[in-house]
Design a protein that fits this description.
It is a single chain. The chain is α+β, with helices and mostly antiparallel strands. It folds into three domains: about 1-45; about 50-145, Immunoglobulin-like (Sandwich); about 145-190. Helix content is about 45%, strand content about 25%. The strands form two sheets. Strands 1, 2, 5, 6, 7 and 10 form a six-stranded mixed β-sheet that branches. The protein has a four-stranded antiparallel β-sheet with strand order 4-3-8-9, with no helix packed on it. The relative contact order is 0.11. One of its GO terms (biological process) is immune response.
Length: about 190
């Protein structure tokens, strides 16, 4: 009985060795090629970003925001008249989005004594690629949720006018009371 068990084990072992040999020489390389091809197409893909200029109000920094790009090897910077600038620039980190793409931003703080926006550009560039996505800093390109300069000026003028009207009313009322008090004193003196 031992010889039949040993022969049975030997036959099963040979069958297993033949199956593994077939798998390792044919099936495994085919699957590996398929996985490498699929992985390469996923890892080598590039998705260009959507680039926007954002500003809360006209006094806040202008944010250049890029989102939806892949891979995460990218740079973003501000330049003026074709030269990269560093003064007044604050770079943000590259952050992941829920869809597997990435986002990043870079802020430009224009001082109040140089409010002109002419010549400024936001540049997005994938690392190792010469092509860039350039967004010019123009009022028409800036998205904002704050009041415009016009709205702020009009609001300030209205506030000054209301304040002046309140002061004028107070002065008129004060003079009338003073005149009435003066008249009452004269009447008391005569009586």
């Amino acid at each position: 009985m031992e010889s039949t068990t040993a022969a049975s084990f030997s036959n099963k072992n040979e069958d297993w060795v033949i199956q593994m040999n077939n798998y390792l020489s044919q099936g495994c390389p085919d699957q590996l090629k398929k996985y490498v091809s699929h992985g390469r197409s996923t890892l080598m893909r590039t998705e260009s970003p959507s680039v926007s200029l954002l500003q809360k109000n006209f006094l806040s920094p202008v944010r250049c925001h890029a989102t939806g790009f892949y891979p995460n090897r990218a740079v973003m910077f501000w330049r003026k008249d074709g030269k990269e600038i560093h003064a007044g620039v604050e770079k943000g980190e590259i952050l992941p989005n829920n869809d597997g793409t990435f986002q990043m931003s870079v802020d430009l703080n224009l001082s109040s004594d140089t409010p002109e926006k002419e010549g400024y550009e936001c540049v997005f560039q994938f690392s190792g690629v010469n092509e860039s996505i350039i967004t010019k800093l123009e009022e028409s390109n800036i998205r904002t949720n704050g009041p415009s300069r016009y709205e702020v000026v009009v609001s300030a003028v209205i506030a000054v006018l209301v304040f002046a009207a309140v002061i004028a009313d107070w002065l008129i009322l004060y003079k009338r009371r003073k005149a009435a008090d003066h008249l009452n004193k004269k009447k008391q003196i005569l009586l």
